[in-house]
Design brief:
The chain is an alpha/beta fold. It is built from 16 helices and 16 strands.
Amino acid sequence: MILRPRAIVRDGELFEGLEVEYAEGVVRDVRPFRGTPDGTILSPAFVNAHSHLEYRGLQGVVPARDYWTWIRELTRLKTLQVPAQVREDAHLAARENRAAGVGYVAEHSDLPVAGEAMRAAGLMGIVFQEVITFNERDDPDSKWRLVEERAAINRAAFGGPVVPSPHAPYTVDQVTLRRWADAPQNSPLFRASIHVAETSFESAFFRDGDGPIADFYRRQGAPFEATGLRVVAWLDALGLVRPGMQFVHACAVEAEDVGLLARRRVSVAHCPRSNEALGCPVAPVRRMLDAGVRVGLGLDSAASSGPIDVFAEMRAAVRSAIALGEPLDEREVWHMATTGGAASLGIEDWRIAPDARVPLLRLPDRPSLAALIRDGSPDDAVWL
């Protein structure tokens, strides 16, 4: 088909006077045209750089607004959930992603249901099968076997990549973490995603042996010792700050952490609505982008972020950056939600350019990306 929008979005900028030849999901050509455009804006589909589809049934259920209370209550409620209901929740969340214009999802999955949900909804993506060994710290191999079994089910149902991935530095034992640290580039474990520095509690735990995480370890009788290192430096000493790794949140990071992420080519998933809701520090995304860190925009879970809405997430990214005094412009935010988010996950052709295989969205005509972000809603994203 030949598409003649009023403008196309390419790498976060609007370009007018171009027609797009598109066939079987591939951009065949982009060339100038003269004539009357169709009154729409054409954009690559959105990329959800971090997701928890299985938490859809917990939307609005956990009222606590501070992170530690919230995560403890969320963990408790998960033990009460019925697997069949979680499966339905994952399917609902996957459909909502698709309806909101999301074409690719980086999913953190616990139970083996996300793969089938993503495939049924027509979503591309990757499933990071979550590994938590805190309760199995004396026999982590038993948990690894369970994770592998769940990953195999997800893989068969999804047909796309499904890889075991650590949940967080403080929920996975060091021996197990070294599986990813030692993974060669051709290993399925080379690509991985881990929650890092969502709050300052992680650095307090690793550096000082203090704070709520340390208190939790003591109550559970789990051994630990202060290392004198902030969490990112601790992960680097372990070998986990490396290419192929995605750090989710990266809120409580300092300048030296940002520099380390850039040098080691670690990508970041920024989840501003979740961070706002849980009182997390504002992630220094401006500094990350300036340092060369690839950053994608993640919708996280309905339990913390609320309804699936990429426009609301982009508005939150703009708002939180202004609050930090390190503004992001609309081009950078749109880029994080589309082409830049895909690049942060290793996909380099998620753009409107010849030979790119990318799903496309029609959006209502607005004078600028700023206006699209300000006024946009999931209903505005129409699949081509």
